[in-house]
């Protein structure tokens, strides 16, 4: 499993290097209590971006979305998508105009609270000027009618993401951005919202999205509408839609629906068996991290050569079939399910803190392996501590830069950072911290500085030097010892 993901990380890194991206060197902090660098000066939030230094045009400022209602009709034979998106939001400030992110497609109609609004396109931004400014503190509803052939994002940041037309349908997937290729969205994890999906496809194809399945009904022209609902706040990059020929399996676990799907083109076997372990893995992780955060379980295995990774799409991760070519693989399932707590329920507030997601998900793989009677987490740590290459020690996982967002430093050194913390504070404090962190930040956003503060509070020790070395240092830290 790790081999495949590392393969991807390498590929992404190479692609970014070719695209001429460079790591943002971030200022190191002097402060004793919070070693996290602040946002790079010079990137200020505005209508066209939330102010994420790594992705200046991601998301939009001025409002907060509560719910997306996405009605989409897609015909794989023509690759034509027709969408009707309702975005319920609250204005943070007076809004004479506001932006949504939308890449490609043609906007036909925009209303704000039912009144037609002026709209223009500026690159991947949809700029909406309501008939009258929306006043600070008020809730408003934007409705956007649009259509066209969706195109994946090939942006300067992280390669391909978004809606992909596949052999028998489509897959909408990608990190850090993908949603804006198929609906107008505040496309940054800092603005989480509930989602209702109504996806209409030719009869006979399956549609899988996030959350709780709400059934199907016949639609005009021999189509079927599938409804899905994710009630818990969700970051936009964690939304997914998968359309095509799939073997589905449904059930119930701890009172929650289970819905999984495996591409029908794959032989029945390792992929089905691995995804079927989802609830068992989730139950184990629940014993370590605290209550499973969402109302549904599941997983989707896609057989699409352009998707060579897995993604922790909320309540229902999507896996490349590659993970299961060598037989059952519950390591990748443990990784993506760990993200349900760390990444999905507790989301980054800005992309530079990605190690909070990937370090903890990598560590969950180590814990799961140990729980399965394989290598201990201590052995996994020692192996990587001894053999990681220069790049891992040179790139600080707490400030990796865009080019190294999904590098081995973030994943492997991120996991080693978690283990170094465990060794330093002892198991009792460490496992209390994991549960406290998941509970305190549940359904929210968090930063590294907050993680450090929570760790210091729960463990009753000053830990800034540990995090300074493991997250921000540019050489291999000394091996951890119990304090
Ligand atoms: N976050 C994914 C995981 O850890 C992997 C990943 C890295 C990814 N970069 C991506 C997924 C780009 C989709 C797109 O499981
Ligand atoms: Zn991950």
TrEMBL record:
<dbReference type="InterPro" id="IPR001930">
    <property type="entry name" value="Peptidase_M1"/>
</dbReference>
<dbReference type="InterPro" id="IPR050344">
    <property type="entry name" value="Peptidase_M1_aminopeptidases"/>
</dbReference>
<feature type="region of interest" description="Disordered">
    <location>
        <begin position="22"/>
        <end position="58"/>
    </location>
</feature>
<keyword id="KW-0482">Metalloprotease</keyword>
<feature type="compositionally biased region" description="Low complexity">
    <location>
        <begin position="34"/>
        <end position="51"/>
    </location>
</feature>
<keyword id="KW-0378">Hydrolase</keyword>
<keyword id="KW-0862">Zinc</keyword>
<dbReference type="InterPro" id="IPR014782">
    <property type="entry name" value="Peptidase_M1_dom"/>
</dbReference>
<keyword id="KW-0479">Metal-binding</keyword>
<dbReference type="InterPro" id="IPR027268">
    <property type="entry name" value="Peptidase_M4/M1_CTD_sf"/>
</dbReference>
<feature type="domain" description="Aminopeptidase N-like N-terminal">
    <location>
        <begin position="66"/>
        <end position="238"/>
    </location>
</feature>
<dbReference type="Pfam" id="PF01433">
    <property type="entry name" value="Peptidase_M1"/>
</dbReference>
<feature type="signal peptide">
    <location>
        <begin position="1"/>
        <end position="19"/>
    </location>
</feature>
<protein>
    <recommendedName>
        <fullName>Aminopeptidase N</fullName>
        <ecNumber>3.4.11.2</ecNumber>
    </recommendedName>
</protein>
<keyword id="KW-0645">Protease</keyword>
<keyword id="KW-0732">Signal</keyword>
<dbReference type="Pfam" id="PF17900">
    <property type="entry name" value="Peptidase_M1_N"/>
</dbReference>
<comment type="similarity">
    <text>Belongs to the peptidase M1 family.</text>
</comment>
<dbReference type="InterPro" id="IPR042097">
    <property type="entry name" value="Aminopeptidase_N-like_N_sf"/>
</dbReference>
<feature type="domain" description="Peptidase M1 membrane alanine aminopeptidase">
    <location>
        <begin position="328"/>
        <end position="470"/>
    </location>
</feature>
<dbReference type="InterPro" id="IPR045357">
    <property type="entry name" value="Aminopeptidase_N-like_N"/>
</dbReference>
């Amino acid at each position: 499993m790790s081999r495949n993901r590392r393969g991807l990380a390498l590929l992404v890194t190479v692609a970014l290097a070719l695209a001429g991206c460079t790591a943002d060197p971030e200022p190191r902090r002097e402060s004793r209590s919070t070693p996290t660098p602040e946002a790079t000066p010079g990137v200020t939030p505005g209508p066209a971006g939330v102010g994420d230094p790594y992705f200046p045009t991601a998301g939009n400022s001025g409002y907060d979305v509560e719910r997306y209602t996405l009605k989409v009709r897609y015909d794989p034979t023509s690759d034509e998508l027709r969408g009707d998106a309702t975005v319920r939001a609250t204005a943070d400030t007076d809004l004479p105009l506001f932006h949504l992110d939308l890449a490609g497609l043609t906007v036909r109609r925009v209303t704000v609270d039912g009144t037609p609004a002026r709209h223009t396109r500026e690159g991947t931004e949809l700029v909406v000027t309501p008939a009258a400014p929306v006043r600070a503190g008020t809730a408003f509803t934007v409705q956007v009618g649009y259509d066209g052939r969706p195109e994946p994002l090939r942006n300067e940041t992280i390669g391909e993401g978004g809606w992909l037309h596949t052999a028998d349908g489509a897959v909408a997937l990608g990190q850090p951005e993908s949603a804006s290729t198929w609906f107008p969205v505040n496309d940054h994890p800092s603005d989480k919202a509930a989602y209702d999906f109504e996806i209409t496809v030719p009869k006979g194809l399956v549609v899988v999205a996030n959350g709780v399945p709400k059934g199907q009904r016949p639609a005009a022209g021999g189509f079927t509408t599938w409804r899905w609902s994710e009630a818990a706040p969700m970051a936009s990059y964690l939304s997914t839609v998968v359309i095509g020929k799939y073997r589905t399996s449904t059930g119930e676990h701890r009172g929650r629906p289970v819905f999984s799907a495996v591409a029908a083109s794959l032989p029945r076997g390792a992929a089905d068996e691995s995804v079927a372990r989802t609830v068992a893995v989730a139950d184990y992780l629940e014993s370590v991290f605290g209550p499973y955060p969402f109302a549904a379980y599941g997983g989707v295995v896609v057989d699409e050569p352009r998707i060579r990774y897995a993604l922790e799409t909320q309540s229902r991760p999507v896996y490349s079939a590659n993970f299961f070519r060598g037989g059952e693989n519950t390591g990748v399932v443990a990784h993506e399910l760990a993200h349900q707590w760390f990444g999905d329920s507790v989301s980054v507030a800005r992309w530079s803190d990605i190690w909070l997601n990937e370090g903890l998900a990598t560590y969950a793989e180590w814990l799961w392996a140990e729980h399965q009677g394989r290598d201990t987490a201590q052995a996994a740590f020692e192996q990587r501590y001894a053999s990681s290459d220069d790049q891992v020690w040179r790139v600080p996982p707490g400030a990796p830069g865009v080019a190294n967002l999904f590098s081995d430093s973030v994943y492997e050194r991120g996991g080693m950072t978690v283990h170094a913390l465990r060794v330093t504070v002892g198991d009792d404090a460490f496992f209390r911290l994991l549960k406290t962190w998941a509970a305190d930040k549940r359904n929210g956003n968090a930063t590294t500085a907050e993680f450090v503060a929570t760790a210091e509070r729960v463990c009753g020790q000053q830990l800034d030097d540990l995090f300074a070395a493991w997250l921000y240092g540019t050489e291999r830290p000394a091996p951890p010892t119990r304090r």
